[in-house]
UniProtKB/TrEMBL annotation:
Belongs to the acyl-CoA dehydrogenase family. Pfam families: Acyl-CoA_dh_1, Acyl-CoA_dh_M, Acyl-CoA_dh_N. This is Unannotated protein. Its cofactor is FAD. It comes from freshwater metagenome.
């Protein structure tokens, strides 16, 4: 059993949430519909994150960051997602890309690049998936060949969040034919030859670009290798264990944002001379939504607390998979119910719940599909 005890938020964390909630209401949510409509990256919301120093929140203090706990980061991801999922990805994506550097990178890489990320001068993407190596990442074919102190990388990566915006890419490439110990990680500057091949047209998170990137003979100095040669697969899995809980937080935020909109609507919308929220059928649906959200939030915070404690008992893989899987399933179910709460209006772009339903779907897919999460959990159960 875990020694990580159930907890409630501290007074400081509650105040942090309140400040973020107001920040999102003032500077993020008003842009969400237009970001979705235009399908363009919003520098306005990114600059808002930068002005609040949220670009520094997730990073060690010695490199210019705030040194916030993963629980604090989950609170931020949740509140941002409640207003605009694409903006929450602006907050989360560089942390995903830089986690390998934080945990396995050299002092040179940390001191050179982390301060830039914290100041919002650089952004980083995570280059793991390939057209034939998504859930089965060990089947990747992108290859890195060493010649002295320089590696030459050739290959294609797909589903790259923030592609074309990021100036840094953490790239995983095959350095030998061994399935798991033949992969190595590198930090690659976009200007060295990373090409954006194809921007995807997506169901949701339209303000966050997703693309195929290509590396044709890109030269990377050995100083930009992350960890040891052959350690890349372990680094990738270590990273996803620590990023999945914040995807769970994002899902919780989407669900909570949709429920908040729905509750306000049900208190104002009248039929047969009374608010529709007085109908027991809708009351019970809303109660079920609230219970599921709170249960998902508890799983997310527990996984984050385990990570903050250093995962002393090896529980994080299972806890993170549970948090991400359950929370994203909840987000899909709750947002679908919220469209129903608003009836015909819920199906229009006049209200944000249809956007939230579309955005929720991706949380069941990226950073490991929920089928993969269930495989992780079942293996931890010894099956």
């Amino acid at each position: 059993m875990s020694d990580v005890q159930p907890f409630t938020l501290t007074d400081e964390q509650r105040e942090f949430r309140a400040v973020l909630k107001q920040f999102v209401a003032d500077r993020i949510a008003p842009h969400a519909a237009e970001v979705d409509r235009s399908g363009e990256y919003s520098w306005t919301t990114f600059e808002a994150l930068r002005s609040m120093e949220l670009t520094a929140l997730s990073y060690p203090a010695e490199y210019g960051g705030a040194g916030a706990s993963l629980v604090d980061q989950a609170i931020a991801a949740e509140e941002l997602a409640a207003g605009c999922t694409a903006t929450s990805l602006q907050f989360l994506i560089s942390k995903l890309g830089m986690l390998p550097v934080i945990n396995f990178g050299s002092e040179f890489l940390k001191s050179t690049y982390l301060p830039r990320i914290c100041r919002g001068e650089s952004q980083c993407s995570y280059g793991l998936s390939e057209p034939d190596a998504g859930s089965d990442v060990a089947s990747m074919t992108t290859r890195a060949v060493r010649d002295g102190d320089v590696w030459t990388i050739d290959g294609t990566k797909c589903w790259i969040t923030n592609a074309g915006i990021s100036d840094l890419y953490t790239i995983f490439a095959r350095t030998s034919n061994d399935r798991h110990t033949g992969i190595t990680a590198f930090l690659v500057e976009a200007g060295w030859g990373v090409q954006v091949d194809k921007l995807e047209h997506k169901l949701g998170i339209k303000g966050s670009p997703t693309a195929v990137i290509r590396l044709d003979g890109v030269k990377v100095p050995d100083s930009h290798r992350i960890g040891e040669v052959g350690q890349g697969f372990a680094i990738a899995m270590h990273t996803l264990d620590r990023s999945r809980p914040t995807i769970g937080a994002q899902a919780v935020g989407i669900a909570q944002g949709a429920l908040d909109v729905s509750l306000a609507y049900m208190k104002e919308r009248t039929t047969f001379g009374r608010p529709i929220g007085s109908n027991q059928g809708l009351q019970w649906m809303a109660a079920d939504c609230a219970m599921r959200i709170e249960a998902a939030r508890a799983l997310v915070y527990r996984a984050c607390a385990i990570a903050d404690a250093g995962d002393p008992y090896g529980e994080l893989s299972m806890a993170g998979a549970m948090a991400k899987c359950f929370a994203s399933d909840v987000a899909m179910q709750v947002t679908t119910d919220c469209v129903q709460f608003l009836g015909g209006y819920g199906y229009t772009t006049d209200f944000p719940v249809e956007r939230m339903m579309r955005d929720a779907k991706i949380t069941q897919i990226y950073e490991g599909t929920n089928q993969i999460q269930r495989m992780v959990i079942s293996k931890k159960l010894g099956l």
